[in-house]
Structures are given as C-alpha cells and as structure tokens.
C-alpha cells in the first residue's frame, strides 16, 4: 500500500481546482485513459471513481499508467517532502535523484543507507509504490525527455547521459513511459543552447526570492569558483565523473540552467544538486502563510515573499567552507569565463576534518540521517555543535536550526531574513 503525501479527498479537490501548488506533490492517474498527470493538468477533471493518486511517477508507471503528453507531469518541481523528511524513503529518494543507483547499483544505495537491499526495497515499495530500480528508471526517463526536447545531443548521447545502460533499454523505457519513440519526442525539440552547453529550464513554485538568493551567493562567493551578477549565479561543480560549470539565471516560473559538463553521465547529478542549492522544490506559499501568522515575522514575510533556503552542491565543501577554508582549488580543465577553478578536494586541504572526508571515514551527503550526522559532526574535533547544525541545515534541509555563534561563514546567511525558520513550516 503506497502512502500518498496528501489525503485522497484533498488531492481530488486540488485536481478539480487545477491547483498548481500541488504539482510534484502527488500524481493523478485516470483509470479510463490509463494516463497519469500533474494535479493542474488542463484536461477535463475525471470522475472521482476514475481517479487514483500516487506519491511518485514511478508508482504510477509500475501500475501501468503512461505520462500525459499535455501536462508533462515529470516536468514540475519535486515534492518538498523529499527534502524535508529524514526517514529512510526520503533519504533514498535524495540519493536516487543524485544518480547513486546508476553509479553504484541498488547494493551501493543500500550500503550508503545502512540497510539490506531486501529491507530497502520493501520499505520503498510499501511507501512509494515502487522499488529503487523503478524509482531510478523513472528518474532516468524524465532526464532523457528533458535532453531529447531541449538539446541537440544525439539520441545515443542522450541515452547514456540519462544513465541508461544501452540504447535498447533507453528506447524501450521511453516508449513505455511516454507512449512515444525518442524520435517523436525529438520533433518537439526547442532551440538548442550555445555550443558545448546544455540549457534546461528548472521549474519552481512561485513566489521566488531570486534577489535574496543572489545577494546571499554574492556575499559568500569564492573568486574563481563562483561569480555573481545582478541577474546570474555561476560556479564550478565537482561531480562523480568529472567537472562542470553552471550558469543560473532566474526567470518567471523557472530558472535557466546552462551547464557545461566534461562527462554527460553527470547531468542528472548536476541538475539535482542545483535544484537543492536553490531550494526549487520548496512550497513558499505554505511557508509564507505559516510564518505570516507570527506578528514578529509578518512584516518580513510581506517584504520578501518566497524566501528560499540555499542548500548545498557538495556536503564536504559546505562543511569545509564553514570551517574557514575559502580558497579556490585546482584550475578547471576548461575555464568558463570568470569561473576558472574548482573548490579544493578534501585531500588537498590539511586538516583532520578534510582527512576524514578524503578517506571516507566521515561522509556528509544527502543520504545521511539528520540526527546521526549532527551528532557525529558535533563530536568531531574542531567542528562543534554550531557548525554541525549549520551543515545539516544546508546539506539536509534540517528544520528549526538555531545558530548562536557569530561565525563569519554564516554572517551572509543571517542577513537573509528569517531564512533558517522556513523549514518549520
């Protein structure tokens, strides 16, 4: 039995109202057409007896439904639940989105989470309606469709960039999920980006405090690693298979993401990390309503709606920067304008924390349990409880994190009004 993130009656009311706030929070499946949609799909609302609800696209696919061609149910912000919850299912979802199954298989995913493959599969199937392989398959299908319709990559390049093991597997999955061939989807392709770049649109739920995010990034930017203007944020990324640079430009309803990758297999991981960095899966209206009930916070919310919680593209980097390591690392193989260097690898930094990160005895990633990671970091020599709380807030989106120290690493953070309170919603 799958667990829908909202009750079914509320879900049906959201569908009847075509409420876009619920896009990404659950999937509507229509028994008569065998199609699944986003809640705001403009098609005729199905009768209640013909509507089913699933927590993920993978669950709908496993039940035999195909994606709607009209509303593109996968091209929406993700559920904020996966960034907020600290249970096994949410931690697994975050790692699957980062491409762990493609790189390490289900055994690697289970090992990272500290559970057996059998138990992990049982929990995910019970809660999400699909096991880790099906969830990874749905993630690959969505990544592939983005690349097919928005880039000029060959279909073979798309297949391997999206994480498929073979072109045949890619073709079969696209036909199964979208009821169309890759070539038919390619016919809808928009104009490709500049040479050597992949340009994608990353949707968000409005309102979106782009100016506040850019101001935060500007205040803490490391020259050469990051570059911020009034309208864009650019930085380098150290990814599992290689290097990347990304230029992020907020626009109405989406953020333009211009990526240059040295290895296309890193595409899904890069997009997932950027989404977490910008907190694009948040539900800001719910947050603003909650915080607006407090008389002290109400003026701040009114003055700056849509405040986001800047996340992290790399847990080790976030920890080391909080400890004061703010120099650029090695030069990029291919510099990208003012972005010329990577942040240093832990092995290049001389400190006990960096040594532990380098040898794997300390792991800071989105698959960690919040309480376990905070306790481990707080007890680590040279870290302490304040930095531990800051890191779990940035990397895991931990709620209600008090920051007592006046550490220089998070002074820009404090200037972003009520930032660390948004998770309490």
Give the helix level as a range of percent: 40-55%
CATH class category name of the largest domain? Alpha Beta
Low-confidence runs: 410-425
CATH architecture of the largest domain: 2-Layer Sandwich
Mean pLDDT: 88
The named CATH superfamily of the largest domain: DNA-3-methyladenine glycosylase AlkA, N-terminal domain
Characterize the largest beta sheet: strand count, sense, and whether it forms a barrel: 5 strands, antiparallel
Would you mind describing this structure in some detail?
The protein folds into 3 domains: 8-67, DNA Methylphosphotriester Repair Domain; 81-186, Orthogonal Bundle (Arc Repressor Mutant, subunit A), CATH 1.10.10.60; 198-424, TATA-Binding Protein. The protein has 19 helices and 11 strands. The protein has helices at residues 8-16, 57-62, 81-84, 88-97, 100-113, 117-128, 132-150, 155-161, 167-178, 182-186, 210-220, 267-278, 284-292, 298-303, 315-322, 352-359, 370-379, 384-396, 411-415; strands at residues 27-30, 35-37, 51-54, 66-67, 198-203, 226-228, 233-238, 243-251, 254-261, 331-336, 339-341. A 5-stranded antiparallel β-sheet has the order 5-9-8-7-6. Helix 17 (370-379) runs antiparallel to helix 18 (384-396). The longest helix is centred in the N-terminal third of the chain and has 19 residues, at 132-150.
Structure summarized in a few sentences:
The protein has 425 residues and is α+β, with helices and mostly antiparallel strands. The protein is 42% helix and 13% strand.
